[in-house]
Predict the structure.
Amino acid sequence: MEYRRLGTSGLKVSSLCLGAMTFGQADEKSFMHNASADEATSFAIMDRARELGINFIDTADVYGQDGLSERVTGRWLKERNARNDVIVATKMRFRMWDGPNGAGSSRYRVMRCVEDSLRRMQTDRIELLQLHMQDTDVEEEETIRALDDVVRQGKVLYLGCSNYTAYRLTESLFVSKAQHLERFVALQAQYSLVVRDLEREHQPLCERHGVGILPWSPLAGGLLSGKYERGTGAPAGTRFATPRWQSNYARFDNDRAWRIVETVKKVASERGTSPSSVALAWLLGRRAVSSVIFGARTVAQVDDNAKAIDVKLTDAEIKTLDEASSFELGYPYDFIQRIQNRW
């Protein structure tokens, strides 16, 4: 396993991160219903990831229902005596209880959500606390000051954000610097061969300011796993076959996405490896990426995704994948690129 610094922080994390969104058998109230793993399987998945050297687990308070994923993760950490071997990341921001303060990133919410996550995971600290999305109803300074406080209390060690616009992340980094407060060292964002929008603004921003990118949905919800074929629909038993995820499949059901799928499969076949490993290896080589988050519902999926560590794509293979997944930059990026060949 390869280990990298999380952004420019001193924290070392495995280049593959185990996403815990599937942990625990979620009921029909959860968006993960029929797309998750029971607790015994979740434990086996974490056991295998640990054996492979993956020291980084990413969860969130809203995964499952009533903090189900955090509770499963916490029980595994305790039963396996693994707390000091694992870097734990979690997220807060979305609604966890009824009422006007049941969602958001106010000081009140930050303080309460940290305590709730610590209790659910039966731990005394969270290595990486991430805001699950920016909150346009709360001033960034209020949020950052609250996050700075939980770091100074020792309950949180590092800060990150997720699903932030580039302008808001820039504002946050400015507030932290101007007020001498703790800053975000990581950005968790959707990034894959299929979804490359991050490259317009976020990637250059993160590279310049030492923020490590943590791609989520690196296989585009499983589209790049090798299970899907153009024109056949979502196979039974896959996530996209479940009612709650069919709209996501429809979003990817286009010529560009299928061209990417076919190119990934071709490269994988020529390399004698899996499509998943090729898609993950491409991400591992992108600028500012610290660790790639992958989910799994079976131990076999963990093994398949872990193959990416041994796949070192050639310049020619990277160019082939880049060209197959090229996307419309839009103004002013395309204008700048025509002049300077970069943006």
